[in-house]
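protien #1 (seq + structre)
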Amino acid sequence: MTCHKTFLLISMMLAVSVVNGVDFSVVDNTGDSAGGRRFREEVGGVSYATQSLRAATDFTWRLFHQTCWD
């Protein structure tokens, strides 16, 4: 499972590095389905996913010595 999380993180970093501005939102509309429970248990839910996206965005901006447009 760690491989999947690493792949997700790298994919998001690459996706973020392609655009000049980043606007994202995380929505968990899965309810009590098996996938929704897995998302909350393994990923950490919406708050952790949002935090991870922000951290990946900030890292990418710093990596390329860019100023964030927030």
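ok now protien #2
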Amino acid sequence: MGQKPKKLNPERSPLDHFGALLRDLRERQDLSQAALAEKLLTTSAVVRKIEVAARFPNTSFIADCEKVLNAGGVLQRMEPLLERERSLRQRKQRAKDQAAASTLIVPVVSRLNGQ
């Protein structure tokens, strides 16, 4: 027997919305995550992570889901929103990394300059 599915919040982000759509389409076809993964030639862990918005789907995953789940284009229409969200998250992470790096560099430079 499988675990109780995690409650999804599709309003939180495009990634969450995509995951909820994917789960809904999969369940309408009466497929488990493992069964869908087998049809997509991937793992159930990948399907699970995408459904719970822990991983971004790539273009081929989206296209394959469209075919396997007969999604009628609904998943592919999400792709530009997913790409925008991925880009924003990457920029935010880079800014965070740069801020962390600058806090490490300033003391080292100060010591090198004898301050």
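The mean pLDDT is 89.
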